Structures are given as structure tokens and as C-alpha cells.
Amino acid sequence: MKNTLLGCMASALMTLTAMPAMAQLKLPAPSPAAKVSQEVGVSEISIEYSSPAVNGRKVWGELVPNDKAWRSGANAATKITFSHPVTFGGKAVPAGSYAIVSLPSQKGWKVMLNTDLGLWRGGTPYDAAKDVASVSATTTEIPSRERLTYVFSDTTDNGTRLDLEWEKLRVSVPIQVDTAALAKANIEQAQKNTAGMHASAASYIAETSKDYAAALKHADAAVAANPTWYNHWVRAGVLSSMGKWADARKSAQAAWDLGQKDKNFFYRDQVSKALAEWKNKK
Questions:
Q1: CA–CA dist 63, 210 (Å, integer)
Q2: pLDDT tens across 141-196, in order?
Q3: Sequence-distant (≥ 6) Cβ neighbours of residue 31 within 8 angstroms
Q4: Would you call 255 helix, strand, or coil by DSSP?
């Protein structure tokens, strides 16, 4: 009896020990996960989806019915992410992530971008009211492709074409990006960042090492990169420490004039006081 009990306990222990290994069992998925991304100018567009196989079935009109909203893949909703605003099939779309919903039809395909990324999970139905874009797509016959695949084609600095390919059909939607405007904004932001670093360097050097000539070089660079009231004020402080009162007054006056247009002119009192105190200094 004792040996039987010990044997049962050992068997149970072996079963419990084996359970974590079974839970980690990895097998091929019927519709494996896939991800593809593309840089367009300074933007990135990526798609995450599950890739079903034809597997000898008739896809269009049967497996994927006509005139019925389709998840544009398998399993969870297919997700597309734009790092910056785009024009999707002629419709302006903000940066962000969206579910791709397709409407196959013999009369012509529609492709929608929907804000509900939880579509088809737990039976969540498609709601057209949550679409940010609904556009016409072009279809082309292609050589047979066993697994559903997304491809970016004809990519330039200003756009690309999103292709869904499966069985013998390609569904395409053009995507445009205003790269010139985005690049300009990036340049302006870089200038602001550079100006901020120079302004910080100017203040630090002037307050610590008292190397005013070096501090002035940084202050000049800050104003050249981004002539804000703050950068002019930093420059005025360095010039006043050097005893260059005429130039200090000009910089302080520039800071004062620009500050009147900024609701965050938090050194208003200091600039006003400096202008009064430096008025007659030579």
C-alpha cells in the first residue's frame, strides 16, 4: 500500500513538472504572424497581420465573401501604423495606428481605416462610424501567391503603394506623405535644440569659469540658430558681464520686444529692470 501511494505521488509530481514544458509547446500557426515596414522620406509605415494560406480553397467570393467587411488578414484585425500624417488613397489621415478593413466586391473594392484595433476579438463587430478613411482600391490579377502578404511598392521620398496580395489578386491603395513639410519641421526643431544647447552652454560658462569670450560665442550661436527672447536675454547677460553695455542694451531690448509676444515671458521683470539700470552705462 505504501509503495503504491509513493508511486502515485511520484507520477503526479512528474506530471506537474512536465506541465510547464507542455505549456511552452511551439507548433506552426495556421496563419502565422507577419510584420512589414517601410520608410517613406522621414516617415515610417508598418503593418502587422496574420497570413492565411490558400490551402486549396477558393478565396475570393467564398472564403472571403463579397460585399462583407473583412479583417484583411486572419485572426485579430490587421494593424497599420503611420509615424506621421499621411494621405491614404486621397484621404488625409492623422498619425497613429488603425485597423485595415476591406470590402471586397465585384463592383470595386473599398478599403477602410478604423480606429477600433480590437475588431473581431471576442466578436467585436465592425462599426463604419469609427472609420477615419474609406477609399476605393484598385485590383490587379497576379501570379498565384499561396499566403496573404502585404507589400510596399513604388516607394519614393513622398509616397508608396500598399499592396495586399493573395491567391491571384493584388489590392492596392496609394499613400502619400508631405516629406518636404516634415523635413522642414525637423530642421526647425534641430535648430531649436541646437540653440538651447548653446544658450545653456553660454550661461554655464559665464557663471562658472567666467570665460566670457567663450560664453559669448555660444550666446551668439544660440541667437543665430533661434532668435528667441530668451536667447537674446542670455546674450545680454554675457555682454553685461563683459562690460559691453551698448551691446547688452541692444540684446536686452530685443529680448523685451520679443517677450511682449510670448505669454511665457517669465523674465519680464528682470529684463525691465536691466534696461532701466543699464540705460546710462557706457
A1: 77
A2: 999 999 999 999 999 999 999 999 999 999 999 999 999 999 999 999 999 999 99
A3: 50, 51, 52, 53, 73, 74, 75
A4: helix
Condensed to tens digits (0 to 9), the pLDDT of residues 34-93 reads: 999 999 999 999 999 999 999 999 999 999 999 999 999 999 999 999 999 999 999 999
Are 182 and 172 a contacting pair, CB within 8 Å?
no
Which residues have C-beta within 8 Å of that of residue 170, sequence separation ≥ 6?
Answer: 139, 140, 141, 142, 163, 164
CA 200 to chain centre: 29
In contact, 251 and 236? CB cutoff 8 Å: yes
Q: Which of 237, 247, 244, 246 is nearest to 274 (CA)?
A: 237
Q: Is 206 left (phi over 0), alpha (psi -120 to 50) or beta?
A: alpha
Q: What's the predicted TM-score (pTM) here?
A: 0.78
